TrEMBL record:
Cofactor note: Mn(2+), Zn(2+), Cd(2+) and Co(2+) support activity to lesser extents.
Binding annotation for a divalent metal cation: E78
Cellular localisation: Cell membrane
Keywords: ATP-binding, Cell membrane, Kinase, Lipid biosynthesis, Lipid metabolism, Magnesium, Membrane, Metal-binding, Nucleotide-binding, Phospholipid biosynthesis, Phospholipid metabolism, Transferase, Transmembrane, Transmembrane helix
Residues annotated as binding ATP: Y18, E78, K96, D97
GO cellular component: plasma membrane
Cofactor: Mg(2+)
Transmembrane domains' residue ranges: 35-52, 58-77, 98-119
Source domain of life: Bacteria
Biological process annotations from GO: phospholipid biosynthetic process
Alphabetical list of PANTHER family matching this protein: DIACYLGLYCEROL KINASE
Name of the protein this chain belongs to: Diacylglycerol kinase family protein
Family: Belongs to the bacterial diacylglycerol kinase family.
Organism this protein belongs to: Pedobacter frigidisoli
């Protein structure tokens, strides 16, 4: 059995460093990451403009996070698959399509929540 590692504050800080490096890689190098960053900034700006309630803010921030989490995991799976098997393989297709489906569900949820929260407020301003 693997020996249990002692708790170390330094190790925890290092884990944060690696996670922030992952975020930087996602937003700086990944095209989808840039699109998501832009969309999140636009949604947050619109939320300030429309003076959302606390619950509406929670809904919007939650779907932004859900989409980003799904996209980051999808991106990690794609990169891992490309390293393990760079050529075409029907099982890699299944793995990548499943990961993409997770993003699709999060994106549909974000569109639905965005429409429910934003459309009535925008119509009131017409
Ligand atoms: N090695 C492979 N074997 C089989 N099918 C693949 C393979 N690589 C990609 N595909 C198919 O192509 C689709 C797109 O894969 P890809 O890795 O290019 O994702 P993407 O979302 O287009 O990438 P990006 O995030 O870079 O825009 C996959 O969902 C899968 O159906």
């Amino acid at each position: 059995m693997e020996e249990e590692k002692k708790f170390s504050v330094l190790d925890r800080i290092k884990s944060f460093k690696y996670a922030f490096n992952g975020l930087r890689l996602f937003f700086a190098n990944d095209h989808n990451g840039r699109v998501h960053l832009f969309a999140a900034i636009a949604a947050i700006a619109l939320s300030f403009y429309l003076k959302l309630s606390n619950l509406e803010w929670i809904a919007i921030l939650s779907v932004i996070a859900a989409v980003m989490v799904a996209e980051i995991i999808n991106s990690a799976i794609e990169k891992l698959a490309d390293v393990i098997y760079p050529d075409y393989h029907p099982k890699i297709k299944v793995v990548k399509d499943l990961a993409a489906a997770a993003v699709l569900i999060a994106a549909f949820l974000a569109i639905a929540v965005g429409a429910i929260v934003f459309i009535p407020k925008l119509l009131l301003r017409l």
